[in-house]
Design goal:
- This protein has 7 helices and 14 strands.
- With 325 residues, it is of the alpha+beta class.
- It folds into 2 domains: 192 residues, no CATH class; 107 residues, no CATH class.
- The strands form 5 sheets. Strands 3-4-5-6-7-8 form a 6-stranded antiparallel beta sheet, covered by helices on one side.
- Helix 4 packs across helix 7.
- The chain starts with 16 loop residues before the first strand and ends with a helix.
Length: 325
């Protein structure tokens, strides 16, 4: 059984995975999960799991982050395929981020994998190192990968000054995986405290922005999902960017607070001499698009977690703004 009562020096000491560590085969009480709208991280892929202690259950909320019992752990592994066009070529795991649910809240821990891919070591100061891989287009990509320090983790995971998880909400987790709704699957396994009344069809569900949109309504849902997943951890009324007055959480209904025809509070050169966050019909005049397209550390948004512009995400937001009236 995994042992997550206290932080360990090495990832292997927790026992989250069975057999060869780099295979990421979940041990007992460790469950894989997927989200509808993932955070973009320089095209890194992620393998997500949660560990749930014996005789405990998760309390889910319709819209807020789920309430995990003390002793739970959220586990996110970041990796690149060596060649995205050849899955058999293998992968390089770079880091594993843990969130430990302790008595007084969540604790973040960062583990960096070694070159042999047989373990990962605790790292509190963060790190940067070169990474290369072959993308789906057959071209070699190279970046200076940045693993965050613990203070940077707090910068995004802050809600009213509390450290909170991201991505473990009903609307993010309400999705089909391998032909079965994962909420229904967990309910059948007895992992959820309110499983007796669970009907995924009646629960909120965030759009998958990676799918091709076929209607204006679908485009709007995908754009809002993208902004919620990639921007709203800071840009919400309770987040680190609350003072900006630009709120990109999926529940925001006021167009002005979304940035439509809204002048920046204090963007400096981050405005790119543009007047408004979003100019309907004109993505090229919108500060939001300008900052998404930038790779300048003093301009780009999000400011942490990426070095590269997310082409597919930018195309989506451009299309969304272009259709605005």
């Amino acid at each position: 059984m995994p042992n997550a009562e206290a932080p360990k020096l090495h990832l292997s000491e927790y026992g989250f995975f069975s057999g060869k560590l780099s295979n990421l085969a979940p041990a007992q009480r460790v469950y894989p999960y997927e989200v509808n709208a993932p955070l973009f991280s320089d095209y890194a892929e992620k393998a997500r799991f949660f560990y749930l202690p014996e005789r405990t259950k998760i309390s889910l909320s319709d819209s807020l982050a789920w309430d995990f019992p003390e002793g739970s752990v959220l586990i996110k592994n970041f990796f690149y395929p060596l060649d995205a066009g050849k899955p058999e070529s293998g992968r390089r795991i770079l880091e594993t981020r843990l969130l430990l649910r302790q008595e007084k809240g969540w604790k973040a821990l960062e583990y960096l994998w070694n070159e042999d891919q047989d373990d990962a070591t605790l790292e509190v100061a963060g790190a940067g190192f070169p990474v290369s891989w072959i993308g789906p287009d057959g071209k070699r990509k190279e970046i200076q990968y940045i693993a965050p320090n613990l203070n940077q983790c707090k910068g995004c995971h802050s809600y009213d000054g509390r450290f909170v998880p991201l991505g473990t909400s009903t609307r993010q987790l309400n999705r089909s995986v391998n032909g079965k709704n994962q909420l229904a699957d967990w309910a059948e396994q007895g992992l959820l405290s309110n499983d007796h009344e669970l009907d995924p069809a009646t629960l909120p569900q965030m759009a998958d922005y990676r799918l091709e949109h076929t209607t204006p309504a679908m485009l709007n849902e995908q754009a809002r999902a993208y902004l919620d997943a990639n921007c709203a951890h800071c840009h919400n009324p309770h987040g680190p960017a609350a003072s900006s007055g630009m709120f990109l959480n999926i529940g925001e209904l006021q167009s002005g607070r979304l940035g439509v025809n809204k002048p920046p509070v204090a963007a400096g050169r981050g405005s790119g001499r543009r007047k408004y966050g979003i100019v309907p019909g004109k993505p090229q005049e919108s500060i939001l698009v300008y900052r998404m397209e930038s790779d300048d550390p003093g301009v780009r948004m999000p400011e942490l977690g990426r070095q590269l512009p997310h082409k597919e995400g930018i195309d989506l937001i451009r299309s969304w703004i272009r259709e605005m009236k």
